[in-house]
Design a protein that fits this description.
The chain is built from 7 helices and 8 strands; from the N terminus they run E-E-H-E-H-H-H-H-H-E-E-E-E-E-H. The chain has one domain: Phenylalanyl-tRNA Synthetase, Chain B, domain 3 (3-Layer(bba) Sandwich). It is of the alpha+beta class. The chain has helices at 18-23, 43-55, 58-64, 68-79, 90-101, 111-121, 188-202; strands spanning 12-13, 15-16, 28-34, 126-129, 138-141, 147-150, 155-158, 176-182. The strands form 2 sheets. It has a 4-stranded antiparallel beta sheet, with helices on one face. The protein is globular. Helix 2 (43-55) packs parallel to helix 6 (111-121), helix 5 (90-101) crosses helix 6 and helix 6 runs antiparallel to helix 7.
């Protein structure tokens, strides 16, 4: 697993609304901004995908879902009313794709950076276009009571769910925000490690 270096980007702690913090005291949002956009997967990242494909076969992939950080997210999903086998995090999606396709296939950056960091640490990582964001990111509830990731003006994504399609990085994107949610059993330092790895890979060859 790649280690953080002196060039590692700053990891920012997002805000959590008072009512959410009171109900889920272990919940936190961590994120970082990276000058990067959508582009083809460089060879060094392809080799890392091949490496984790070789290390994580179908049997190992299934076993990982019930251990460490991955198990913590499955427990948390049930706490907030989600079914981890239906409401899949990036980890769950990547593992299913690995079993179906026989490998972690290149899909371009920053998608591959998020996949590698997620599989290596068990912490789901999401990427969004940072240009249109307004203020710091945080976690709050909607008027309907749903938990969401939001900035100062709008909802960006359901908690532990895919961001709004309009926020997806594109070839014209100049900067992305990578974010992770820390939960009980998978604390902030692990989320930071995942973000450092994803940021390093997303910047590879840029």
């Amino acid at each position: 697993m790649a280690a953080a270096s002196s060039q590692s980007p700053a990891i920012v702690g997002g805000w959590v609304s008072d009512e959410v913090r009171e109900e889920f005291p272990g919940l936190a949002l961590r994120y970082t901004l990276v000058p990067s956009g959508v582009r083809r997967t460089p060879s060094i990242v392809k080799r890392q995908l091949e490496d984790i494909s070789d290390r994580i076969d179908a049997r190992r992939a299934v076993a990982l879902r019930s251990r460490g950080s991955t198990a913590a997210y499955r427990v948390f999903q049930r706490q907030i009313g989600l079914d981890p086998d239906l409401d899949r995090t990036p980890f769950e999606t990547a593992i299913i794709d690995r079993m179906i396709e026989g490998a972690f296939l290149p899909r371009g950056l920053p998608a591959d950076a998020c996949t590698i960091a997620t599989i290596e640490t068990g912490v789901p990582i999401w990427a969004i276009d940072a240009v249109s964001l307004s203020g710091p990111l945080g976690i709050r509830t909607t008027t309907a009571g749903s938990l969401v990731i939001a900035d100062r003006k709008s909802v960006l994504a359901p908690l532990l769910g895919a961001p709004e399609a309009a926020l997806a990085p594109s070839r014209t994107t100049s900067a992305i925000a990578l974010f992770a949610v820390a939960v009980a059993g998978s604390p902030e330092p692990i989320a930071d490690e995942a973000l450092w790895l994803a940021a390093a890979l997303a910047s590879e060859g840029a």
